[in-house]
Design a protein that fits this description.
Organism: Streptomyces chitinivorans
Oligomer: single chain
Protein name: DUF2993 domain-containing protein
Radius of gyration: 24 Å
Order of helices and strands: HEHEEEEHEHEEEHEEE
Number of strands: 12
Shape: elongated
InterPro entries: DUF2993
Strand content: over 45%
Structural class: alpha+beta
Helix content: 25-40%
Length: 228
């Protein structure tokens, strides 16, 4: 009986040591991943990175992580060719392959979201029109307020947002009033297709929705390298 108790004590001790070593290793790896993402993406702040699954060390041996979550701010993308900072970037990476002697990590699949403010969208391509929150009723229809300054005419309209081709946010004004010019002339100035580039490779736009603070982009993709 004493021998059995001693054996159980040793197993508990070694088990505790293994768990402790595993947690130290995963914390070290999370710091290194965050450092690489910050450097490669030119972020002012280090992102928060969480490697999921236990044990971590056996995942490393198999060169595949169950999943990784990352949260960051200040990721620079291009909207209509203009640099724009996106905030509240949350990405979930699944089945992450460790490649090139652990120097890169590529996810089989990924989902996420990011926010662009109305001011940044306005500066990126509205050209004579400013975007703003249109209230809860319009937001439920995925519409924003559009304040337009045309020649001799100022209008307040509402535009619907939708994603096209996995990389473009399209703005289409609803219910144009009667004007002394052709509708296509007006739409040429107020409807916009804002192409978004510079997202981590493999991520595409799935849909966009609006709230009080701006436009939330929902993302998904495959073979995604967050730090690539």
């Amino acid at each position: 009986m004493r021998a059995l108790k001693a054996l159980l004590g040793l197993l508990v001790l070694f088990g505790g040591l293994f768990v402790g070593a595993d947690r130290l290793a995963v914390n070290f790896a999370e710091d290194k991943v965050a450092e690489k993402v910050q450097s490669s993406r030119g972020l002012d702040e280090r992102p928060a990175v969480e490697i999921n699954g236990f044990p971590f060390l056996t995942q490393v041996v198999g060169k595949e992580l169950e999943s990784v979550d990352a949260t960051m701010n200040g990721l620079t993308v291009q909207v209509g060719g203009r640099d724009v900072d996106v905030t509240e970037v949350d990405v979930h990476l699944g089945d992450v392959r460790l490649e090139n002697n652990f120097s890169s990590a590529v996810a089989d699949r990924a989902t996420g979201s990011a926010r662009i403010s109305y001011q940044d969208l306005t500066e990126a391509g509205a050209k004579g029109a400013s975007l703003a929150y249109a209230g809860a009723e319009r937001a439920a229809k995925n519409q924003v307020r559009l304040d337009v300054n045309l020649t001799l005419v100022e209008l307040t309209l509402h535009s619907s947002l939708k994603v096209e081709n996995g990389d473009t946010v399209a703005l289409h004004a609803e219910d144009l009033p009667d004007l002394p010019v052709a509708e296509d002339v007006v739409r040429a100035q107020i409807d916009r297709k804002l192409k978004i580039t510079g997202l981590p490779g493999g991520l595409k736009l799935e849909r966009a929705e609006v709230d009080e603070k701006g436009v939330v982009l929902h993302l998904s993709g495959s073979n995604v390298d967050l730090a690539g």
